[in-house]
Amino acid sequence: MSQFDLSRFAINQITTPKWTLAEAIEGYARQGVHGIAVWRQYLDDYGVKAAVKHLHAADMWVASLCTSAWVNQTDAAGYRQALDENRRIIDQAAAIGAPCVVMVVGGVGSDKDLYAQHRRIHDALEELAPYATAAGVKLGLEPLHPMYCGDRSALNLITHANDLIDELGDKASGLVADVYHCWWDPNFEQQLKRAGKDRIVTFHYCDWLVPTRNLRDRGMVGDGVVNFAQIRGWLDEIGYDGPFELEIFSELDWWERDHHETVQIAIERCGPYVGPRIARP
């Protein structure tokens, strides 16, 4: 039995990529973690009905469904297909009880026009917002570190995400804040407070390693330079009471480890930062 209150703690499935969805559900629950962020390729492999049944049987709750389809297609047909795929993903999120779909929207398109991609992101989110609202699922806008702007996402600043949420409305959208992507931003604290407790739909933990060896080289909490106590203090100030997810991409380390060990260490490292309100340092 863990010494920590893990009621708000979820492990993002990409942290243990060698496990199927069924194995992840069992592996997390076995060590007392009953929150999971589901990745859609594993969900597609398992099937929505089987996943719902297994999640319920294991007393699991879902923090989010990762991730959306990119909307960086420069041809009209490809763009419409991406929107249709995102509607399917929203339906899947609703079926498994995920409060949000994490929107990773694609980097610069083949036209190499960053501003055109910003317009595509805006227009896609605007079109998807009513569908998400009707499904009871929020579009979780996750700003990614600028090093991903060329491929994964041209939504790179928490300020930009908050601006979009202002337009889309809180019923349709929310903020997915990830310390890996935002810890360096001078506006991080101010933008978290701007968002407030109700706009943040889930919060991602992992650490920034020095040196970072490649774009998939994130660290376990405590192994890098992120000040988690300080950031948790900001969240406590605004009264945030939502989920905390551990999400690690780690081709050179954690992905190669025994996943049972990863879950055990995750609990030990994240435990102090996921429970009830903590005192600010």
UniProtKB/TrEMBL annotation:
Signal peptide interval: none
Keywords per UniProt: Isomerase
Domain Xylose isomerase-like TIM barrel, residue spans: 31-257
The keyword Isomerase is annotated on this UniProt entry: yes
InterPro entries attached to this UniProt entry: IolE/XylAMocC-like (IPR050312), Xyl_isomerase-like_sf (IPR036237), Xyl_isomerase-like_TIM-brl (IPR013022)
Pfam families: AP_endonuc_2 (PF01261)
Alphabetized Gene3D superfamilies for the sequence: Divalent-metal-dependent TIM barrel enzymes
KW Isomerase (keyword) present: yes
UniProt-recorded Gene Ontology molecular function terms: isomerase activity
Top-level taxon of origin: Bacteria
PANTHER family given in the database record: HYDROXYPYRUVATE ISOMERASE (PTHR12110), XYLOSE ISOMERASE (PTHR12110:SF52)
Name assigned to this protein: Sugar phosphate isomerase/epimerase
Species classification: Bacteria, Pseudomonadati, Pseudomonadota, Gammaproteobacteria, Enterobacterales
